[in-house]
Amino acid sequence: MSFSWQSVKSYQDILYHKADGIAKITINRPHKRNAFRPQTIFELYDAFIDAREDPSLGVILLTGAGPHTDGKYAFCSGGDQSIRGEAGYVGDDGVPRLNVLDLQRLIRSIPKVVIALVAGYAIGGGHVLHLICDLSIAADNAIFGQTGPKVGSFDGGFGASYLARVVGQKKAREIWFLCRQYDAQAALSMGLVNTVVPVAELEAEGIQWAQEILQKSPLAIRCLKAAFNADCDGQAGIQELAGNATLLFYMNEESAEGKNAFLEKRDPNFRQFPWRP
Ligand SMILES: CC(C)(COP(=O)(O)OP(=O)(O)OC[C@H]1O[C@@H](n2cnc3c(N)ncnc32)[C@H](O)[C@@H]1OP(=O)(O)O)[C@@H](O)C(=O)NCCC(=O)NCCSC(=O)CCC(=O)c1ccccc1C(=O)O
């Protein structure tokens, strides 16, 4: 399928495209199996904010560039271990960071559907990135796993608790404690991905899913995403869900009456509105 992607902005570590209601954000460090450094995360954050603010977009595809020159694919292999310092990943400014956590929260709270398109490795912090996307479509060559306890790291946030919500406590503990790798069919059977397709069809499948979603009600989808999050995200999740209730209320005449009365320096006439059962 040919799709007319338009490049939005030039970055060092990522590619960012849009077309027909869909954004595509691609981690572009294939020589590192798309491992992220602080710069990569800043750029991803910037692109996701742009996609959130663009009302023409309803679905964001997150993927990794590939294959590399050795023929191997990767979605993302987590934090770039070659620049891991004593207190996080160290960028050109010399400051150690774990800024992928900011990105995780943004992807979860963005009121649009984020779909991970996973070809090749989704490992470590890269595995957590696909996990926190709303949907994951795997290529038949996808490989999933956590490596934290092997490389002296762990993600005790979404990487542990949300993984357990998705695959169950026993399987999540197995994934973290043994650090094994799982192929696409194993990921499908444990509910870690939504479907598996041949690698050559991965992007087309993502576009197909996005187009189906784009036929649906934007407000219904955003409220559903907030509702799914509210179950796991404590007060931040309730805030997100309640923000949507306020948004819907602002769009209602009853709410407008309060604002208009204030601006017109009169008492509001709320008696015109019913107290519904
Ligand atoms: C992904 C592999 C299994 C792929 O294996 P293979 O196909 O054999 O390729 P390689 O030859 O190993 O790799 C090719 C090339 O890429 C380089 N590379 C690959 N991954 C990384 C990486 N993560 N960092 C740096 N460089 C990487 C590799 O060195 C090769 O380079 P050459 O120059 O050609 O030699 C395999 O590569 C692999 O296992 N990679 C490491 C996976 C890993 O352990 N990732 C880190 C996990 S920890 C993490 O992601 C932390 C995330 C985080 O930020 C965080 C979040 C929340 C709480 C805490 C943290 C925290 O950081 O602690």
TrEMBL record:
Catalytic activity: 2-succinylbenzoyl-CoA + H(+) = 1,4-dihydroxy-2-naphthoyl-CoA + H2O
Enzyme Commission numbers on file: 4.1.3.36
Any one GO CC term of the record: cytosol
Stretches that traverse the bilayer: none
GO biological process, one term: menaquinone biosynthetic process
Superkingdom of the organism of origin: Bacteria
Pathway assignment: Cofactor biosynthesis; phylloquinone biosynthesis; Quinol/quinone metabolism; 1,4-dihydroxy-2-naphthoate biosynthesis; 1,4-dihydroxy-2-naphthoate from chorismate: step 6/7
Residues annotated to bind hydrogencarbonate: Q146, T147, G148
Names of the cofactor(s): hydrogencarbonate
EC class name: lyase
Gene Ontology molecular function: 1,4-dihydroxy-2-naphthoyl-CoA synthase activity
Site, Important for catalysis: residue positions: Y89, Y250
Binding site for substrate: 33, 77-81, 89, 121-125, 147, 153, 250, 265
Keywords: Lyase, Menaquinone biosynthesis
Role this protein plays: Converts o-succinylbenzoyl-CoA (OSB-CoA) to 1,4-dihydroxy-2-naphthoyl-CoA (DHNA-CoA).
PANTHER family: 1,4-DIHYDROXY-2-NAPHTHOYL-COA SYNTHASE, PEROXISOMAL, NUCLEOSIDE-DIPHOSPHATE-SUGAR EPIMERASE
Family the UniProt entry places it in: Belongs to the enoyl-CoA hydratase/isomerase family. MenB subfamily.
Listed HAMAP family: MenB
Name listed for the protein in its UniProt record: 1,4-dihydroxy-2-naphthoyl-CoA synthase
Taxonomic source organism: Acaryochloris marina (strain MBIC 11017)
